[in-house]
Structure formats: structure tokens, C-alpha cells
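C-alpha cells for chain A. Residues wanted.
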């Protein structure tokens, strides 16, 4: 029976809760695993959680032939249904290919025999090669910006208190956040800094750092879409759901360090919006590229409802409501 990928012990909360939930249990069959979920305001399983769990399930089946661990370098996932928080998630991994330096895996996450997520991930041994990358833009550093945690503390509302208590990452928006109201301009561009709220042990495997970046990025990926449409998280009747997730890892990730997200939304149409992000570390190294398409609907759209990873946020004071 395949052993689950080992997760570090993290005493600091709320990062410790995330590390524990990403630690899967062995399932009954070969290459099968079982996961649980963290509480969510939406009442549904958080999408970033199930993709990160699926990535770690796949990583547990990748062989180490003595030349070093094969690290995840790309992930492609499709969300099919909303997951139920109270039920365990079954992860079944299919070994598609093991080559001399690359391995590919297909992972299906299901509840009660019904698939909620399908994903393919690829892993590679560390190799030498040519180096080139885009430069990180010049933006204010995190020490100059206001933390989302500070904003939540000023709001006397159950949602703000929940987020302030459970957020495992500190987020600082360069252009200002869109939690309570839209941005000043309808521009689908966003920059933000992000760092784990707590600290992973120094010997934490690189695969875990990459899985944690996958976990947290789903919180902010569709924000440029909202900005481009003049919306905020409190826009009354907003229905938002991630449809698919693509991610590439270029260099080692360290979630103990500040990470800069450079985001944009090239297009929205048909109730869907596209979002992209380039993620740099504090020294300017490009560590990851991410792309998502999401369903974004407002009241009056021809087709209503979501049922998939939906987040509905109703607000009373938003100018867009």
C-alpha cells in the first residue's frame, strides 16, 4: 500500500490546520488516499485545498530512484462539482508514465463515488539547463502596505472575524483590496504580496511548499476578473466559482518568504472570466505561473446558480449592489 506524502508538524495556527488537512490517510486500494476538509463560509470544500491534496496524493506515488526527488512542475485541474465539507474526499491516483526524468499522474477526487475534481500533474528530477525569465515589476514592498488581517480586525462582522481567525496566509494588496468595495478603476490588473502566517520547519520538502502555494492562490486568482467588471467581494448577489486551474512551477518556492503576485485578466465573456498570475519571490526570481478560468455571474444574468465551488457574498453597502 502506498504511504501518504509526509507533511511537517506545524505548531503555529492557522498554518498548522492547513498542514494537517493536507496530510492524507492511506485508502483501501493501491495509490488511493483519503482527505478531510477545513470549515468554509461557503459551505463547500475550498478548491485550493482539494487541488493541493490531489497534488500531494500524486506526489506520494512518484518514485525516487536515488537521483533526487521528482518535484511537481505542472498541474492541470478541472472542478466538476462542489465538495461537501462533512464527507471525506477519496483520491485515486493513476500512474500514467514514469520516464528517465519525468513522471505523470492522473488524480481523481470523489465523494460517495461521484467525481468532484480531475487533474493531471507532472514531476521532474532536478536538472541543469539554460536560465531566462521575465523581470519582476517595481512595486511597493510588503513593509509599506496594509495587511488584510489588519483590515479584518477593523470590521465588526462574522465573515471578517472568521477570515481573521482562519486565514493561513497574510495578504497585502498594492492597489488596495476589494473586500468591501470595488477598485477605483475598472482595470483587470492586480499586484499583491503573500506570505504564510506562521513558519514551516526549515527541512520542509519542496513539494509541500509548492502544494501550499497551490492551496492559497485560489483565494486571490479571480480578483482581477472582479476588478475588470467593477465588482467587489461584497457585490450583492455575486456568484463566483473556479472552473479550472493550471499551474507551472519554475523554481523552488518558499512560502515562509514574501511572494509577489503579478496578476491580470485578459478577457471576460459568457459568464466566464480568465485570470493569470506570475509569482516572484522577494529576490525577484519567477517561481510559478498560474492561470484560472472562473464563472462570474451577477443577478440578471441569463443563467443563474452555481452548485460548483460557489462563493456568494451579499453586502448592504457596496456601490455595485
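Reply:
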Amino acid at each position: 500500500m502506498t504511504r501518504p506524502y509526509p507533511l511537517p508538524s506545524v505548531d503555529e495556527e492557522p498554518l498548522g490546520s492547513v498542514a494537517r488537512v493536507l496530510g492524507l490517510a492511506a485508502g483501501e486500494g493501491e495509490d488511493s488516499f483519503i482527505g478531510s476538509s477545513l470549515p468554509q463560509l461557503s459551505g463547500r470544500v475550498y478548491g485550493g485545498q482539494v487541488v493541493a491534496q490531489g497534488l500531494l496524493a500524486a506526489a506520494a506515488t512518484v518514485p525516487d530512484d536515488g537521483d533526487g526527488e521528482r518535484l511537481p512542475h505542472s498541474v492541470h485541474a478541472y472542478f466538476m462539482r462542489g465538495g461537501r465539507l462533512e464527507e471525506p474526499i477519496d483520491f485515486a491516483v493513476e500512474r500514467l508514465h514514469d520516464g528517465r526524468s519525468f513522471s505523470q499522474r492522473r488524480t481523481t477526487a470523489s465523494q460517495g463515488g461521484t467525481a468532484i475534481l480531475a487533474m493531471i500533474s507532472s514531476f521532474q528530477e532536478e536538472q541543469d539547463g539554460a536560465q531566462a525569465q521575465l523581470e519582476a515589476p517595481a512595486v511597493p514592498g510588503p513593509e509599506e502596505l496594509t495587511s488584510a488581517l489588519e483590515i479584518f480586525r477593523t470590521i465588526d462582522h462574522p465573515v471578517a472575524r472568521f477570515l481573521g481567525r482562519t486565514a493561513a496566509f497574510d495578504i497585502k494588496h498594492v492597489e488596495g483590496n476589494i473586500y468591501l468595495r470595488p477598485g477605483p478603476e475598472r482595470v483587470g490588473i492586480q499586484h499583491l504580496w503573500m506570505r504564510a502566517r506562521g513558519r514551516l520547519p526549515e527541512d520542509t520538502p519542496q513539494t509541500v511548499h509548492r502544494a501550499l502555494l497551490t492551496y492559497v492562490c485560489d483565494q486571490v486568482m479571480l480578483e482581477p476578473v472582479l476588478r475588470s467588471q467593477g465588482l467587489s467581494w461584497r457585490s450583492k448577489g455575486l456568484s463566483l466559482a473556479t472552473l479550472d486551474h493550471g499551474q507551472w512551477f519554475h523554481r523552488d518556492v518558499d512560502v515562509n518568504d514574501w511572494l509577489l503576485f503579478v496578476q491580470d485578466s485578459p478577457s471576460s465573456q459568457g459568464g466566464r472570466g480568465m485570470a493569470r498570475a506570475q509569482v516572484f519571490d522577494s529576490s525577484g526570481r519567477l517561481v510559478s505561473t498560474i492561470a484560472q478560468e472562473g464563472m462570474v455571474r451577477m443577478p440578471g444574468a441569463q443563467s443563474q446558480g452555481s452548485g460548483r465551488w460557489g462563493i456568494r457574498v451579499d453586502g448592504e453597502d457596496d456601490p455595485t449592489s
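The CA atoms of residues 125 and 144 lie 38 Å apart. The chain has one domain: 14-126+141-297.
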